[in-house]
Amino acid sequence: MSDLRRRIAITGANGFVGREVSRALLARGIAATGLVRRDAQCEPGVDVRHIDGLDAIAPDAFAGCDAVIHLAARVHVMSDTAGHQSSEALLNAYRAVNVDGTLAAADAARRAGVTRFVLMSSIKALGESDPGRPFTEDDERNPPDAYGVSKAEAEVQLLEFGSRTGLEVAVVRPPLVYGPGVRANFLAMMNAIARGMPLPLGAIDARRSLVSVANLASATIECALNPAAAGRVFHVTDGYDPSVAELARKLGEQLGKSARLVPVPAALLRGVARLAGKTAQIDRLTGSLRVDSRRIREALGWQAPQSLDEGLAATAAWFRTARREG
């Protein structure tokens, strides 16, 4: 089937990744159907279909679609670790959306005649730090928190569902995603650099894999279209893993503002973090999380359309425009 006759459904089409996937599909002449709640806004050109939740989704929502890119999820937020819920209640909240909701969406899609279902998972399904080498897709799942557990369980159960029913399932595991519109820690780092604030990262040589949202959208669409993706898990990265200090310097170059990096030893940072109750945040900065993404290149022939520097340049350009308009 040619791209011009295809239609792909996107759950969570209004989100950071969903909007980029929508734009990329439409740019290729592939029709995009966005499955979102009633108050959500999608990209122009997307066929919007409203749903009340993944657990209430009906096969009609996927009518006419060849594939589904499943992005809707309960995402990891720092407040989830602040003790507002018991660990069991928190895990159940994640499972309700990320496991049960995913399986409900997959079953509705299958009953509608969809043949391919792509799950957006997370490297957190494997762990928070790498085992002294880049993670591969075949590494044992050892999720560090409730969000990671829910993603790991969704992967296992969805792949089993596919093998049992004939639905072609592919799983995409990204590390940190950045790009125009990014939020959270990445945006905070750009804000700090732009304001000339000192960052205690000069001695941090831990390397972290990243993927630009444009690269992630491209790879996810490839997994929705390529016959060789069925039944497999794929890691997606930019292909170069900068150290945290190097990333800050590169961002500074793109922002036209040299990053003020102070060489504070990692052990001292971790000690201060324990006192301040910020251990998880500092661990993410001081520990390596490298991801091997050779499989998608070798098995599907996919190549990242953006380099790390190009992705950072696009992100910095958006940031400068947002600051001027804000």
UniProtKB/TrEMBL annotation:
One annotated GO molecular function: aldehyde dehydrogenase (NAD+) activity
Pfam family, one: Epimerase
GO cellular component: cytoplasm
Domain NAD-dependent epimerase/dehydratase: 8-229
Database matches in Gene3D superfamilies: NAD(P)-binding Rossmann-like Domain
Family matches, as SUPFAM superfamilies: NAD(P)-binding Rossmann-fold domains
Protein name per its UniProtKB record: NAD-dependent epimerase/dehydratase
Organism listed in the record: Caballeronia calidae
Organism ancestry: Bacteria, Pseudomonadati, Pseudomonadota, Betaproteobacteria, Burkholderiales
